[in-house]
Amino acid sequence: MKRFILPFVIFVIALLLMIFGRDPAYIPEEMHRVLQTIGAILLVAGVTWALIAAIRSVKNRMLSRYDMTVSDNLRVRKLHTQYNILEKILVFIIILVAVSFTLMQFDGMRNIGISLFASAGLAGLVIGLAAQKALGTILAGIQIAITQPIRLDDVVIVENEWGWIEEINLTYVVVRIWDKRRLVIPTTYFLERPFQNWTRTSADILGTVFIYTDYTIPIEAVRKELTRLVQDNKYWDGKVNVLQVTDAREHTLELRALVSAASSPDAWELRVYLREKLVGFIQREYPQCLPRTRVKLEEEVRSKK
Questions:
Q1: Percentage of the chain surpassing pLDDT 90?
Q2: Distance in angstroms (rounded) separating the CA atoms of residues 271 and 206
């Protein structure tokens, strides 16, 4: 209720000024007009402030029922995204209408507006072209709210940067990069250019770890070690655990460990853990199977002959 106190005070002051200014018997005519104008402006400001406060209060009350911190928060993120963008759209419209009503209180502004509309020809075309991109960006923000290619807290890769959607506004989106940087991108980007959304339908994700070894590596032993490692790790969700030979190069075998996790941060922690432990396992148990280059010494071969 505290947020409504100041708008209420402004509203009361505006009404008093307008009532007091209606009777020009005790005040000069110029002061009468000034009081009427100030009262009308304050009335518009008070109503505008109250409407914005009411919208934010309703939004906060609705969103307080949904917890964003739960692991499976896809539906919650949808609602947070829709309510936040809807709030920004309504606030934008209310402020635009309020500014229009405020300008109408000044005769000079009305005359200027009429003159501009009367000679709108070329000037209107120039202004329209200049505002086309801004209007397109605003419409893109509305389209994102409806179609939702991205949502709050989605994990995305944009411009080769990995991060989370932190803010979605009418004209721009803020991506929180993994190293705490912020990437600010216009909303049109997400409708016109391809990007990766790792949590579009669910938060779970597959992670890969590549290990390069010699051809003599006992693959089954590495596979058993991978199973032991993931079973003891809290970041593994218990679904996918696969070790495959994905390539045979000139000097090395490429082993790919494919594992699953409940979220992309968990997948990252699991990947770096497995990479470290698998390399340590090969160094400790099969050091002769580390990648190496074989060189044939021709002179030594000839001397033996």
A1: 28
A2: 10
